[in-house]
Amino acid sequence: MSTLLEQLKTMTVVVADTGDFHAIEKFRPRDATTNPSLITAAAQMPEYAAVVDEALRFARGSAGQDASVAAVVSQAIDRLAVEFGLRILKIIPGRVSTEVDARLSFDTQATIDKAHALIAQYAAAGVSKERVLIKIAATWEGVRAAEALEREGIHCNLTLLFGMHQAIACAEAKVTLISPFVGRILDWYKKHTGRDAYAPAEDPGVVSVTAIYNYYKKYGHKTEVMGASFRNVGEITELAGCDLLTIAPSLLAELEAAQGELPRRLDAARATHMDVAKIEMNEAVFRAMHEQDAMARDKLAEGIDGFTKALVALEKLLEVRLGALGA
Question: Which pTM does this prediction carry?
Answer without folding.
Answer: 0.95
